């Protein structure tokens, strides 16, 4: 049977993995085993936090909308309930942006809900 030497393939695979570990600290950027483990953790956290980011932003928008609503004399829950009843389909991201950058438009929306 023919002998198969795998040096080139292995080196290529390891080099590729070390390229991903560029910028890591200490031995994790140069040592294959340490780099591999560090990357497994890094990718796991990246995947998890791409989802957590969406939750955190939604919570932030809710806080911003609540603050703007309370200045206009309505609670957040009543505001959201009013939006649903009046069939105003604006998401929290847009509402938070309006509350922060265009308070006059946000005030009109709140007045429409208070009717």
Q: Would you mind describing this structure in some detail?
A:
The protein is mostly helical and 115 residues long. It has one domain: c-terminal domain of poly(a) binding protein, CATH 1.10.1900. The protein has helices at residues 7-20, 32-71, 76-85, 92-101, 103-114. The mean pLDDT is 96.
Low-pLDDT residue intervals, each spanning 5 or more residues: none
Query: What's the tally of helices?
Result: 5
Q: Which sequence of SSEs, written as H and E, runs from N to C?
A: HHHHH
Approximately what portion of the residues adopt beta-strand conformation?
Answer: under 5%
Q: If you average the pLDDT, what whole number results?
A: 96
Summarize this entry quickly.
By secondary structure, this protein is an all-alpha fold.
Brief descriptors of the model:
115 residues, c-terminal domain of poly(a) binding protein, mainly alpha, 5 helices
Secondary structure layout:
Blueprint: H1 7-20, H2 32-71, H3 76-85, H4 92-101, H5 103-114
């Amino acid at each position: 049977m023919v002998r198969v030497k795998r040096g080139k393939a292995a080196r290529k695979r390891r080099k590729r993995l070390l390229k991903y570990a560029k910028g890591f600290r200490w031995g994790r950027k140069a040592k294959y085993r340490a780099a591999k483990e560090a990357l497994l953790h890094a990718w796991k956290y990246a995947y998890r936090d791409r989802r957590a980011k969406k939750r955190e932003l939604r919570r932030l928008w809710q806080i911003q909308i609540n603050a703007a609503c309370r200045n206009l004399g309505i609670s957040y829950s009543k505001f959201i309930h009013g939006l649903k009843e009046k069939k105003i389909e604006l998401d929290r991201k847009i509402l938070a942006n309006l509350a922060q950058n265009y308070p006059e438009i946000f005030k009109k929306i709140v007045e429409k809900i208070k009717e």
